[in-house]
Design brief:
Elements lengths: L13 H20 L5 E4 L7 E7 L9 H14 L9 E4 L3 H13 L3 E6 L4 H9 L3 E5 L5 H12 L2 E2 L2 H8 L8 H8 L10 E5 L4 H12 L5 E7 L4 H7 L31 E5 L1 H15 L5 H19 L4 E7 L13 H7 L4 H13 L4
Parallel strand pairs: 2-10, 3-4, 3-6, 4-5, 7-8, 7-10, 8-9
Antiparallel strand pairs: 1-2
Helix pairs in contact: 1-2, 2-3, 2-6, 3-4, 6-8, 10-11, 10-13
Length: 367
């Protein structure tokens, strides 16, 4: 379904405009009710002169960084006239985006359908349904987008298409986007302008927002995107080949795609790192040990890269601050990333990576 397709709604009807105004008010009010998410400090030796922060997006009401994306997507679609009363919003997602979009659909009183693989865990489906959505299952995950388009056409609904619209739905110049929030919260810290901000890529929208904002305000901050082991973003960024692909799905939920998605803006990214999945999981477990917070695998991917950057700064005797993201809570992954049995099934040995992190945090040398 073409998202710009005209829906058979009388837009001159005062009742329709009243519904639209109320829907937009409800979505904007959600932001007003929410205190900004916290910046957590990751303890580092004082002698290094480096501060490492995690922007804790797990404290949103739907529990993840995708709450910001879903809010922006709904405002964008409403203002474009793509969502109408009684018509469903459809999304191809089995993860945090679907949970957050289900919440906003319920908030404005429209149905929400998440097109998900049949293998999706019961817990994820429960969260989507808890927020008022329903799951539409497909046997082949590669058909999710096509089935979403077809389902939206059959129901007269709107296919939200996060992978296309993530970068254009968010106001990267400000409006309390994640980059503006980071700089405001750092304003009284000893290094208010971070040397690096590290993000990960699922749609690419977050790194696009941060990179554009940094350039728009002429900050000297550099932006790094950490990519999981099985993903096509890194290869596309490195080679410029739009056909670069990875032949298997990412094990780190919420990030990594077989190919670079339309919302990924390579020119807004200064550096990328390819992170082994075992390193991502070692880093998220190190986070729990050091900070006392369980987080998801994408947080581990970003944290591994952030700590590697810190190690480079230590080696070069540079001071400054580094920021990365805590994307969602680890309680969603007790049966996977926090399960030694699951690691064994996947053939993942996190011990060497955990040792690298432990030695670095105690000795200051990245081995």
């Amino acid at each position: 379904m073409d998202s710009t397709k005209t829906i058979d709604v009388d837009r001159t009807d005062p009742a329709h405009r009243a519904w639209l105004n109320e829907a937009i008010r409800r979505v904007q009010a959600d932001a007003n009710r929410s205190a900004d998410t916290h910046l957590l400090r990751f303890p580092l030796p004082e002698r290094w002169g480096i501060d490492l922060y995690l922007k804790d997006e797990s404290t949103h009401v739907t529990g993840s960084l995708k709450h910001r994306l879903a809010r922006s997507l709904f405002l964008y679609a409403l203002c474009n006239g793509w969502i109408s009363p009684g018509r469903p919003v459809v999304e191809s997602s089995s993860g945090s985006t679907a949970v957050s979009e289900a919440y906003f659909a319920s908030l404005i009183g429209v149905p929400f359908i998440a097109v998900v693989p049949r293998t999706t865990s019961r817990e994820k489906c429960r969260l989507i349904e808890f927020h008022g959505g329903q799951c539409h299952f497909v046997d082949d995950p590669s058909t999710m987008a096509a089935e979403s388009i077809a389902l939206a056409a059959r129901t007269g609904g709107h296919y939200m298409d996060q992978f296309t619209y993530a970068e254009r739905a968010t106001d990267w110049r400000g409006n309390n986007n994640i980059a503006e929030s980071i700089y405001r919260q750092l304003s009284l810290e000893r290094y208010p302008e971070p040397a690096w901000i590290v993000a990960t890529a699922g749609t690419g929208g977050t790194s696009a927002t941060i990179g554009r904002y940094v350039r728009y305000l002429q900050h000297q901050t550099l932006v790094c995107v950490a990519d999981p082991e099985f993903s096509g973003f890194f290869d596309f960024w490195e080679s410029g080949d739009e056909n670069a692909r990875c032949d298997r799905s990412s094990r780190i939920e919420g990030i990594g795609r077989p190919r670079a998605e339309p919302s990924f803006v390579p020119g807004a990214v200064d550096r990328m790192m390819k992170v082994p999945d075992a390193a991502s999981i070692a880093a998220m477990r190190t986070l729990e040990r050091v900070v006392g917070r369980k987080a998801g695998g994408s947080t581990g991917t970003g944290l591994w890269s952030a700590l590697k950057i810190v190690a480079e700064m230590v080696a070069d005797q540079r001071t400054g601050s580094v920021v990365t993201l805590l994307g969602d809570p680890g309680e969603r992954y007790l049966d996977t990333y926090y399960s030694d049995a699951w690691l064994a099934e996947q053939g993942l040995d996190i011990a060497p990576y955990a040792d690298t992190l432990d030695r670095f945090l105690t000795e200051g040398v990245w081995r």
